[in-house]
Design goal:
By secondary structure, the chain is of the alpha/beta class. Helices cover 32% and strands 25% of the residues. The chain binds acetyl coenzyme *A (ACO).
Length: 322
């Protein structure tokens, strides 16, 4: 069996905030932000657009794309670090929003690597035979976690959601199959201080704000990306030259391009949306997938490598034949 992507959808809040908009409230500039990160703008959720609302819209779009109704889904996994509430999970809220009272729904939390961790989890459920069709959703409202007086972090992030439908289908067991060909997951909790939120229910009883030692994160990022993508290459015998598309987590253009160069992946195969969306954490990969599918780049049968690195640290990759 393979877990095949049969639907894809995305949702971005309407409000767009440009670098120049930020420069009106902070000591920063369009030039600094573009030069260091590649970001030009980000979408910011409104008062009535919590994470579950963005995730629900993306899920509905993915279901419509797959030609399915929620009655045919039996598993919902949401990757998020910005839930509406400490509990219940965003996944159960989306389940209710879809009118579902069957199946199982839960969240996974691996920050920016969350979408890849969620795909790996769903893939294992589908391959075990316990479930048949999963909605895998990355949904975030990082704008709510930011310290809007800290120019070193608040310019980097944005809000949004993306979703895929994964469906168990019989396959031949070769890399010619459509579907998830391998997933590779890693974490190392010693790096907590480099990227974390300084609050939570069992410590401060507040939500807290995102804190990041940006240069330290940058220093580790390229090595971790290489490590995890090479793990997917080793597991499948695929090389950078074989890929049709490299769809990395969208945190920083410099990290993405340095990683692609080291991995022998041609720049024209790299999907970049960080300029338009900023870093949307677990939503960034499905948003980038939707962009490249909608503009005609990603087509059925293409070999697509996704990867991410984020807080924890966590890092992960998945190789998918679309
Ligand atoms: N505008 C203008 N100046 C700024 C800004 C800003 N928005 N932010 C910082 N600066 C200044 C700093 O104060 C510093 O000034 P100083 O030299 O006078 O002290 C100078 O710019 C350089 O600061 P650095 O932090 O060293 O800048 P750097 O080149 O490292 O770029 C950045 C910062 C963009 C954050 C970079 O380190 C980076 O991208 N790191 C990786 C971050 C990342 O990808 N995080 C996501 C991980 S995913 C997740 O799980 C959330």
């Amino acid at each position: 069996m393979r877990s095949v992507v049969t639907g894809l959808g995305a949702c971005l809040p309407k409000r767009i905030v440009s670098n120049d908009d930020l420069a009106k409230m902070l000591d920063t500039s369009d030039e600094w932000i573009i030069q260091r990160t590649g970001i030009r703008q980000r979408h910011i959720a409104g008062e009535h657009e919590p994470t579950s609302v963005l995730g629900l819209r993306a899920a509905e779009a993915a279901l419509a794309d797959a030609g399915l109704t929620s009655a045919e889904i039996d598993l919902i996994i949401v990757a998020t670090a910005t839930p509406d509430y400490t509990f219940p999970s965003v996944a159960t809220q989306i389940q209710a929003g879809l009118g579902m009272t069957h199946g199982a729904a839960f969240d996974v939390q691996a920050v920016c690597s969350g979408f890849v961790f969620a795909i790996a989890t769903a893939d294992k459920f589908l391959l075990s035979g316990s479930h048949k069709r999963a909605l895998v959703i990355g949904a975030e409202t990082f704008s709510k976690l930011l310290d809007w007086t800290d120019r070193s972090t608040c310019v980097l992030f944005g809000d949004g959601a993306g979703a895929i439908v994964l469906e168990a289908r019989e396959a031949t067991g070769t890399v010619a199959d459509r579907g998830v060909l391998t997933t590779q997951l890693r974490s190392d909790g010693r790096h907590r201080e480099k990227l974390y939120v300084d609050g939570g229910p069992s410590t401060t009883q507040t939500t807290g704000h995102l804190r990041m030692a940006g240069r330290e994160v940058f220093r580790h990022a390229v090595g971790m990306v290489n490590d995890i993508v090479n793990a997917s290459f080793s597991a499948t015998g695929i090389t950078g030259a074989d890929l049709d598309w490299f769809v990395p987590h969208q945190a920083n253009r410099r990290i993405i391009e340095a990683s692609a160069d080291k991995l022998g992946i041609a720049r024209e195969k790299v999907v970049i949306t960080v300029d338009l969306h900023g870093n949307t954490s677990a939503a960034s990969i499905p948003l980038a997938l939707a962009t490249a599918r909608d503009d005609g780049r990603i087509k059925q049968g293409d070999l697509v490598m996704i990867e991410a690195m984020g807080g924890g640290f966590t890092w992960a990759s998945a190789l998918i034949r679309w």
